[in-house]
């Protein structure tokens, strides 16, 4: 609890993992993210998953339901390679739930390839495994609002400077180019992903490839 009061996600090496996660008895559940965040590992997915994991852990740490029933931890490969070997783990990131009693079952490993690693999906999985419901609170992102305000200011300034000659507003080529830009943006894969929210990876039912 003292560690959690200082940091929402507790960093663990091999010794701490064996003492506080693996060794019985325990009266708390532990969510562990096995990852490789060091730059030399070149794991961009690990960094993205870590950001979502931090959002989830902070939502739990600062919620009114926060208690000593659940803790969020992380084991980095460069700090706990022996843990990876002990669990026969050869990929990262991986999320696992260690229950208070007994060994983790198959469902205690989060299916990241099928579901993705969004904080909301992780929260649903944790609720299924621990009966602890976490409402995800994301920090506000004002970048879109700022960009829109700058664009409106730029257009307004341009119209003000050209207030005596506004014939360019009736330029069909300009409007056509703007319309094409909007069409390309709306039909792009980025917009499709934003609207549909597909899983991070798909599995081919014919050959099982991910």
Task: Please tell me about this protein's structure.
The protein has about 210 residues and is of the alpha/beta class. The chain folds into 2 domains: about 130 residues, Glutaredoxin (3-Layer(aba) Sandwich), CATH 3.40.30.10; about 55 residues, no CATH class. The protein contains 9 helices and 4 strands, in the order αβαβαβαβααααα. β2, α3 and β3 form a beta-alpha-beta unit. The chain is elongated.
Order of helices and strands: HEHEHEHEHHHHH
- Number of individual domains: 2
* Spatial separation of the terminal alpha carbons: 39 Å
Look at the structure and give the CATH class of the largest domain.
Alpha Beta
Which overall shape is indicated by the principal axes computed on the Cα atoms?
A: elongated
Determine the strand fraction and express it as a percent band: 5-15%
Number of helices: 9
Record the strand order, biggest sheet: 1-3-2-4
Structural class: alpha/beta
Stretches where pLDDT is under 50 for at least 5 consecutive residues are none
CATH homology-level superfamily of the largest domain: Glutaredoxin
**How many strands appear in the DSSP assignment?**
4
Averaged pLDDT: 88
CATH fold-level assignment of the largest domain: Glutaredoxin
Which architecture name of the largest domain does CATH use? 3-Layer(aba) Sandwich
Radius of gyration: 24 Å
Sheet bearing the most strands, described?
A: 4 strands, mixed
Secondary structure: helix percent:
40-55%
């Amino acid at each position: 609890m003292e560690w959690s009061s200082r940091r929402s996600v507790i960093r663990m090496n091999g010794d701490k993992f064996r003492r506080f996660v693996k060794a019985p008895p325990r009266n708390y559940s532990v969510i562990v993210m096995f990852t490789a965040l060091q730059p030399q590992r070149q794991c961009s997915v690990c960094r993205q998953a870590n950001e979502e994991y931090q959002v989830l852990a902070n939502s739990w740490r600062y919620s009114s339901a926060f208690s000593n029933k659940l803790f969020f931890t992380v084991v980095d490969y460069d700090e706990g390679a022996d843990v990876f070997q002990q669990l026969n783990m050869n990929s990262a990131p991986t999320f696992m739930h260690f229950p208070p009693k007994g060994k983790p079952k198959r469902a205690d490993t989060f299916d990241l390839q099928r579901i993705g690693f969004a904080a909301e999906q992780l929260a649903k999985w944790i609720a299924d495994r621990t009966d602890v419901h976490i409402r995800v609170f994301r920090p506000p992102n004002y970048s879109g609002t700022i960009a829109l305000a700058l664009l409106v200011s730029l257009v307004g300034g341009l119209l003000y400077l050209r207030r005596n000659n506004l014939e360019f507003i009736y330029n069909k080529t300009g409007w056509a180019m703007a319309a094409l830009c909007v069409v390309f943006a709306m039909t792009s894969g980025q917009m499709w992903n934003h609207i549909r929210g597909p899983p991070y990876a798909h599995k081919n039912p014919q050959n099982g490839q991910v």
